[in-house]
Amino acid sequence: MAKILCVLYPDPVSGYPPSYVRDDIPVITRYADGQTAPTPQQPLGFKPGELIGCVSGALGLQDYMEKKGHEFIVTSDKDGPDSEFEKQLHDTEVVISQPFWPAYLSAERIAKAPKLKLVVTAGVGSDHVDLDAAAKAGITVAEVTNSNSVSVAEHVVMITLAQLRNYLPSHPYFEQGGWNIADCVWRSYDIQGMKFGTIGAGRIGLAVLRRLHPFEMDLHYTQRHRLDATTEQALGLTFHADSGSLVSQMDIANLQVPLYPATRKLIDARMIASMKRGAYLINCARAELVDRDAVVEAVTAGHLAGYAGDVWFPQPAPAGHPWRTMPFNGMTPHISGTSLSAQGRYAAGTLEILQDFFNGRPTRPAYLIVAGGNLAGTGEKSYELR
Ligand code: NDP
């Protein structure tokens, strides 16, 4: 029997369970790169399409935990030394957390958790865990690779269109009784023919490029390893050797790289100054990839036409975070990777990882970030330790 600590975002303010607008969701069994969707060995404790990413939903893990006799604590209280999360760490063996409401697992917190063996990110992106400290402590870190990549890609396409077409400011006019066409369209452009470039064309970045290709955009990308020629030709991609070359030429620049020491503040004031006046920046990867205040200054001064995304630091963003009130922002809370569709996949993947862990089976290499004291599996390709 193990103690498992699961940190999830709070329930809806209107209460749980919610009622649902749809009765079913499509079943996705395989991802674009051929990886199979999660295959836990016992029935899921939820119906795909249910809200399981919040505290009362508990990732549908309650049944599994009870049957196995584990102590299963679910909380959203994660910040500060008096938080439930920090109080429970001392004898916890497994932490389950998620990027949307990150339980920051710093080196200090890892030092307070001597029994911790496994950290599961229910989703993709484990930068809220100090991977270096986890490796040194012999902790395994795993995430549910691919589970929400398309969810994020769809969000990127949506906010790109919303920004360029000035959708968000236009929506409230009619609700307020107006018909302000000129007010709506004075910042509205077609994306056809525009240069769109992504820094990072991995699972999400490439899915974005594939989805934007039918819009007849001029598509660009940069990353350390070039994509194969067939993919480049099929999508008409232009490769850039570095981020500087890419952002200086784009109408819309998109960030889709993991956060690790070398990518922190990749987009700083100098990089933003090199962008075209009126360019847009899209970031559904991680907030700390950009210089927060440089973005505010550039958007406020009109150098950037807008900034959109769903990732903040810290999360939840404090009331005074300048992006909350920045002009021409297309921000949301961190939601792109936690649609109901995505929740079903990352919850199933979390169950698969737990079952393998408790049954002494190896974790799928695609899910591994840190194992055996070093980066492993997907982690070897995605991150660098300090
Ligand atoms: P992948 O690992 O599949 O893709 C990341 C890409 O970034 C790789 O193709 C890699 O290529 C490239 N890359 C890495 N380092 C650099 C660098 N220094 N310079 C240029 N390119 C680089 O990751 P995903 O697409 O699955 O996810 C990307 C990120 O998106 C995640 O790490 C996470 O932070 C975020 N995310 C956000 C979500 C949300 O809800 N908003 C949900 C899921 C993920 P190469 O190695 O060739 O450089």
TrEMBL record:
Residues the record lists as binding NAD(+): 149, 203-204, 258-262, 310, 334-337, 382
Chain residues that bind substrate: 124, 148
Molecular function GO terms recorded: formate dehydrogenase (NAD+) activity; NAD binding; oxidoreductase activity, acting on the CH-OH group of donors, NAD or NADP as acceptor
Pfam families xrefs: 2-Hacid_dh, 2-Hacid_dh_C
Presence of the UniProt keyword Metal-binding in the record: no
Site (Important for catalytic activity): residue numbering on this chain: 286, 334
Subcellular location: Cytoplasm
InterPro entries in UniProt: D-isomer_2_OHA_DH_cat_dom, D-isomer_DH_NAD-bd, FDH_NAD-dep, NAD(P)-bd_dom_sf
D-isomer specific 2-hydroxyacid dehydrogenase NAD-binding domain segment(s): 158-336
Domain D-isomer specific 2-hydroxyacid dehydrogenase catalytic: 63-364
Main location: cytoplasm
Keywords recorded for this protein, A-Z: Cytoplasm, NAD, Oxidoreductase
EC assignment: 1.17.1.9
Gene Ontology CC entries for this record: cytoplasm
Subunit structure and binding partners: Homodimer.
UniProt-listed PANTHER family: FORMATE DEHYDROGENASE 1 (PTHR42938)
Biological role: Catalyzes the NAD(+)-dependent oxidation of formate to carbon dioxide. Formate oxidation is the final step in the methanol oxidation pathway in methylotrophic microorganisms. Has a role in the detoxification of exogenous formate in non-methylotrophic organisms.
Designated name of the protein: Formate dehydrogenase
Native species: Caballeronia catudaia
